[in-house]
Every structure is written in structure tokens, then in C-alpha cells.
Design a protein that fits this description.
Alpha-Beta Plaits
Length: 100
């Protein structure tokens, strides 16, 4: 199993809108690709939130071939939608892990 983790720090003034959009639009759109089997949306705790609130969005898929298909066929458009909506109001980084 492959765990795709997207860590996102959003400005405090967009937190509520970002969370709502992620829950009702973005995460459902990612799941509609059929690549991922499950997802989790988490808030990181015990961090200084003066300059932003940090979340981790996690998606689980069967194997690397599935993840590579997501990257090739879907990721660019989905990331573009997020970037356009929240431009200059977030920072993000992505990590890929193998579940043992």
C-alpha cells in the first residue's frame, strides 16, 4: 500500500473556507478518480499557528503503479484548481510513503 500525504499550511483567514472546500469539493474529486481507497484529513497539533494552520491530507492506494497513474492523469488538474482558488494563501509539500 502507498500513502500519499499532502501537508498544507493555510493562512488563518482562509482556514474555514479551505476546510469546507476540501471536504466538499477537492477530496471528493480526488476520490472520484478511483485511484485511492481511503483518505483522512488531519490537523497538526502543538504547532505555532501564528502564521497559519497546518493540515495533512492522506490518501491510500494499492501500489506505486496506481499512484503513478494518478500523477499522470489527474494530479496536475486537481492541483491547479487548488492553486487558483488559494493562490498566495498557503504552502504545501507532498510525501510518499510505503505502508509496511
Amino acid at each position: 500500500m502507498i500513502l500519499y500525504n499532502v501537508t498544507v499550511k493555510v493562512l488563518p483567514e482562509i482556514e474555514e473556507d479551505w476546510l469546507q472546500w476540501m471536504k466538499t469539493v477537492h477530496i471528493p474529486d480526488v476520490m472520484k478518480t478511483g485511484i485511492f481507497k481511503e483518505n483522512k484529513l488531519c490537523r497538526l497539533l502543538h504547532l505555532d499557528e501564528t502564521d497559519g494552520v497546518t493540515f495533512a491530507v492522506q490518501y491510500l492506494c494499492d501500489d506505486m503503479a496506481s499512484f503513478e497513474r494518478y500523477q499522470k492523469e489527474f494530479a496536475k488538474a486537481l492541483q491547479h484548481d487548488h492553486t487558483e482558488r488559494y493562490k498566495d494563501k498557503y504552502v504545501a509539500f507532498r510525501t510518499l510513503m510505503e505502508v509496511l
